[in-house]
Automatic annotation (TrEMBL), chains A, B, C, D, E:
CDD domains: TmCorA-like_1. It comes from Halomicronema hongdechloris C2206. Residues 1-10 have a biased composition (Pro residues). Keywords: Cell membrane, Ion transport, Magnesium, Membrane, Transmembrane, Transmembrane helix, Transport. This is Magnesium transport protein CorA.
Length: 384, 384, 384, 384, 384
């Protein structure tokens, strides 16, 4: 059965899937999970001419790069060690609330202005290659005048490799641009990452559609419910991106140039497309539930027809046979079952039974009840 | 069966039906399908006095026309050859994002201002003559000061022929007008093209309505689901047109004169009408699903009634026959089935059975259960 | 059956019910139906002192009246003759788009400013007296400085007669007022005309409600679907009136005086009332669909109970009878059916069967299954 | 049955429940019902020191009170006599549209500014003491500089008595305040009057909930539909109050002092609470419909299980009995039913039948089908 | 059964759950329940250096603290004694409407500006430790220049203890801040308190999901309805918080500093998260209702299949046995049941019956009807 439908691409977080503070704890309290990997810091510093990639050990080593006019991309993967995070906050002068948003994952995607920093929280989804499931993690951006800080939950494969390659091999105009363009490029990669996930769901829905009409199974129902639940969860993840990017477009912020806004507009279009499709999928899944219900009703109908046809044909016949199994004594009265002593009695009963059966079969035929039993020639009958 | 219902006018694109970039690819990356036809460029240059139609080989041949004061309509069909597209972008000074929108089809319909160019992305639908299906493709407009660039996906029959004729034969005021009016005329043709498609769906819905109440079939369900899916998809295609045209109306753009805006208002009205109707169709399709479910329930009811009527009439009769088929020995006791030796025994049993059967038939009759079996005179019975 | 429910007050236009141009045709193209009646023009010119009613043959005969300071109401009924319409457009200096809106019916209700003319498109509904159906046609208004042009689709009974009488017999203040007040009076008559139509639907819904709970029939379902469809269609017709009148209220237009706006506010209230009620009706119709489904389920339940009660009582009895119909040879063994030779054998079997039947009846009675069979005293049983 | 559920607190007006003019009648036409009681006018004139209550015979007798600086509350009950109403309009200088709103009941609740008068139309509901139903009537307010005119439909018990007492016995600060505070006090009494009505519905819903799960009856369905219909109607009555009071709060009107607006804000909160609860009730009623449907399905399931258990146990047994009731002649062949002559034949058949029956019972037991028959120990079985 | 699902975390207030005045009572009338505990007043006065906690006996004892520049937090628990409340109102100069909001619980959450006081009404939820239910009570805030008044319904465990500890042990920056920050800290604690409640519902929904697909029981339905009802009630409680906090963020109020607004933004994010999840839960609960309905249908299907399979196999067999139980007299005619005297008669009948049974079993097998009986190998069959 496992191969019959694509396995569930269930996201990692589910149900109560926002990080929340212990009620009453002071703002800025960090919630570090015990098994969270320690942060790995990679700095890429580039301008049109040179590009340096460096693995940073101590957060303070970033400081010299922040003052230069070249673009510094500090990519931190892993949320593990509170003391290191406190030092990172110091180096980048992060407001305690920013630190909380970045470390206490997952947060709702959003955009926040903090004087000379722009904080953007997003969710990245990645289809695991060759598997029909996807991973989801929070990616936070802190955009400063000449630097971009990105924070990912875990040090693993992300969707930023093509951009790292574009920096390294000078593909496109990325190297000539400022930090805001880098921010756009990464954001765009995250948004575009939703499309392959949507494709997974499209395939699953199509598989379910076939299943529902061809062979509805009790499990199909649970699958439809599951897919609805996941789409709800995904929509809840995507929807705030739309508002966040719209806020980026409409607010005047010196950190984002008008030129880059043209590109962000494209990003916005893509989020709207993703939402459009999610909405459509959700409506399709709801409709599938109805189709399933109808298909079950149809099958029940078929079962009932089978029972009814066979029962109503044989019950009268059995009654006739029962009549002539009675033991009325023909010797005490000429009225007592004289049929039993007729010469043609037995054949006559058979004829009677044949007539009754034929009549009923004809009745059912005319009402179109045999249709479902021979789907091949169903179109030949008057109705279904 | 294939002729019993109109074949599905399914659009060409479905499910994940927006073009999206490989996550992380630089903006402006073109995605040329291997089988895409190479672009065919046709230029029509006209003013009130003269009109020239010319097939262009090299994109650069357009340049001289762009500087003249006459209106130049450059119609490009086919998205095939990346190098040609790069040259086209050069000639028309297209921003990389414009080029991407135009070539990476399909995009969501939208309007974008780019300094002295106005980019409008639309979807054109065309009913294939004599077939009950329609084609859908993206048509992009780039409106410049004296020229209009239109880009279609494939070189085939489009809905612009009447406008080409109006230019050629000086029908209406088109030849006296500027490029913005040409743009309006083409946009209007695209919007009006949705009406025949709606008519197709109207006919399908009406056919389904008849089918659902007269002869609900298992396939009917799948058809309703299919039509809902297609209407969702169509609505997703039309809806952004509304926003796009509203943006055209409300933004001040020197490329579109106040005079033409009066005409665009008409265009807007038409999009709203299309959406109105799509919404109505969608609600009707949903209601049809309910009607179908009820119809299935009704049929099941009918099946159950048949079973119940025949079973409950014959089961007691069979029981009576069974009684007198017992072999109690009348010789050991006068109490042992003396009926078998009565003179009127057998006729009396028949009378008893007739009485039981009549009583049950009367019971069912009074409850109105025979109604469905003779629909012709169903109104004569008390209820249904 | 035809008399059992009020006949459908189906509007004249259905499904694709907006006029649309052949894609690509120039704006302003008129679509005159071959069977459309030629326009009949009636001019009523009045001021506080005098009132003249004149049937106009040639459109040009209106011109002298337009220049006077008295109010001229030109009422045109019939959309038949293109040449006359071109002349009308000339006389009243109508923009080609106005002419198109007025002649290519039906359009969506709307308000449009055209320099010194205000164009309002509305739909008039009229209940046909003594019949339970209504007619629907487009009425367009062109309000100029001293005149009001109204265009109706057909020369027949309309809802303007009371206003004609108010002009003729100086009822109310109409004769003292300007053209804008006349426009209000006519618009108000059109809006108020929706209430009797709503009353028709109210009655139909009430009739359906009774039917659904008392005697649900397969046709009832189709009727509910039909009423939903008509309410959707009616709402689509009413909704734009609301926006149109709101636009009249909020836009500053010299053609409409502040004084008349107080009256238009009343008109707006009425449209909102109509929409309120339509919305309520729609929700009621949806709820009726659910009630119908439940009623069908209830009836099926009743059918199943009948079958179950009779089957489960008689099947065990028949089994017992079958036992003693077996032919085991009592002579070869004292164990072989000695009951057959007992003195009280036959009565004992009857007692056994009575006991079984009574037990089952008691079982069903306690579960309340007999309730539905005697609705009169259903409240006496424990549950239902 | 009548006592089993609270009787329907059906409002007085239903379905087409707005007053509408005969289409085409002049604005301000009064629709006086023949059986409407003549207006009874009671004037209460008070200031901080004195308070006078006087029954007014001729409307003109109010005039002297209007000019004084004391607050005059003119309460008119009954809409009967057109000539008196014309005189009232004269005395209070009411615009014809105000008169129409006040007399042609019911109108949609609303607020309208008319120069130095503020017109507020509301609906008052009153639970009839000791009966589970409520009355609904329109109460209109005309607030002038020093007076407040209130118009009720009928001269009967209203919810203003506590306020009359507060004036008479100087309770609270009412006597120190202006007419706007009196207006607030009356409006607040009207709004608070909705809560007891809501409580009625809350009780009905709770009663229905119990009924639906414990003993779903066919009538329950009609009751749920009825309650939905009434809630829809009530919501339509309450909703415009919200907009009306919000308009009072946000518009600057010299007739309402800033001080009183603080109190009106409280009034607004209460309307929102009423709407909140209505919305919740409506969703609960919808959910109840689903619960009802499921409960019906569950009962059908139970019925089917009963039938299936008994049928499938006895049908095979009856078959076995039928076998040994066959009359094959054992004398012509040793193969012909030798069992009949076996010594242990009859007991062996009983054993066989017992084995079959036990096997089937065990099968059904394992599938948990007996659960419903003994709800007390249903948790002991594996599933249900 | 009680342990099988988490007990209902039903809130304390239900249905008509807003406090409302007796219609017509003067504003500011207090509704003190007879069993309400008398107010216990605790004052915490702190600045960066010192912090004093004092139990206040007479409200007037608070006065001296209000004039100091240190922050005074007056926490009142219990709404019992009207005279004390009147004195409290005097001391804090509370407007009668504020007093009403604070004492007449529950009110709808809201924010109100009153000159130099800011009133915020909120609902606090607390999960009872080790029990799967939560308490709900109103907490009102009155924020003045240097003080914060909080009013709780009952003197019992609340969620403010961590904040009291932060004041006492100088955790975080609370001691350095003003009253507005204290207000934020308490509000944040209240909002964060919703998350554990949501987690309870998440667990209950997950438990219901398992139950619905594995073992749907009649009670499951009532539980789903119950959870929907509670979620509706919870949403009605949370929703106004969102508007209230948004109002705090967007209004300029000298009592709340810009600095604290950054923190309130976080609070707002959390409310939106809570609403997001509530909405998702509600949709899941609705979907569960559908799943339940389908599961019931599926079980009915299974029951019907069992009945149909056994009935349709044995009914024909019984008929055959019935045939040979007839008593036609073979001696009067060679046509009368010669089979009974055949040598192979009895075995032949058995063969015939086996053939019929096998044919029917094969028929059902091919249609996949046996699938449900052996779920373990259900994937081996063609469909289901």
């Amino acid at each position: 059965m496992a191969n019959a439908h694509p396995p569930s691409p269930s996201p990692e977080h589910s149900y109560v899937d926002y990080a929340y503070d212990q009620p009453g704890s002071p703002p800025g309290t960090l919630q570090i999970r015990a098994d969270a990997p320690p942060p790995q810091i990679v700095l890429i510093d580039y301008n049109a001419k040179t590009a340096v990639r460096q693995v940073i050990e101590a957060p303070e080593d970033c400081s010299p790069y922040l003052d230069t006019r070249s673009v510094s991309w500090i990519d931190i993967q892993g949320l593990g060690d509170e003391s290191i995070w406190r030092r990172i906050a110091q180096v980048f002068e992060l407001h305690p609330m920013i630190l909380e948003d970045v470390v206490n994952v997952p947060q709702r995607p959003k955009v926040e202005d903090h004087e000379d920093q722009l904080v953007v929280v997003t969710h990245m989804v990645m289809v695991v290659p060759d598997q029909e499931r996807f991973l989801q993690e929070q990616v936070s951006f802190v955009l400063g005048p000449n630097y971009l800080l990105t924070v990912q939950e875990e040090p693993r494969y992300d969707c930023f490799d093509p951009i790292r390659a574009r920096i390294r091999y000078r593909k496109g105009s990325l190297r000539q641009r400022q930090a805001d363009y880098l921010f756009y490029a990464l954001l765009d990669a995250i948004i575009d990452g939703y499309f392959p996930v949507l494709e997974l769901y499209g395939e699953r829905l199509e598989a379910l559609e076939t299943k529902v009409t061809d062979a509805p199974h009790t499990k199909t129902l649970a699958e439809i419910h599951q897919i609805k639940r996941e789409l709800l969860s995904l929509r809840r993840s995507v929807w705030p991106h739309r508002d966040a990017i719209a806020a980026l477009l409409h607010k005047d912020n010196p950190l984002i140039s008008t030129d880059v806004k043209i590109y962000l507009r494209d990003c916005y279009e893509h989020v709207v497309q993703v939402l459009d499709m999610l909405e459509t999928y959700r409506e399709l899944a709801s409709s599938l539930m109805d189709v399933y219900l109808s298909a079950v009703s149809n099958r029940m109908n078929e079962v009932m027809k089978t029972l009814t046809v066979i029962s109503t044909i044989f019950i009268p016949l059995t009654f006739i046979a029962g009549i002539y199994g009675m033991n009325f004594n023909p010797t005490v009265s000429p009225l007592n079952m004289p049929e039993l002593n007729w010469y043609w009695g037995y054949p006559a009963v058979w004829l009677l039974m044949l007539a009754v059966a034929s009549g009923l079969v004809a009745f059912f035929w005319r009402r179109g009840w045999f249709e479902n039993f021979s789907p091949a020639d169903s179109s030949a009958k008057p109705s279904g």
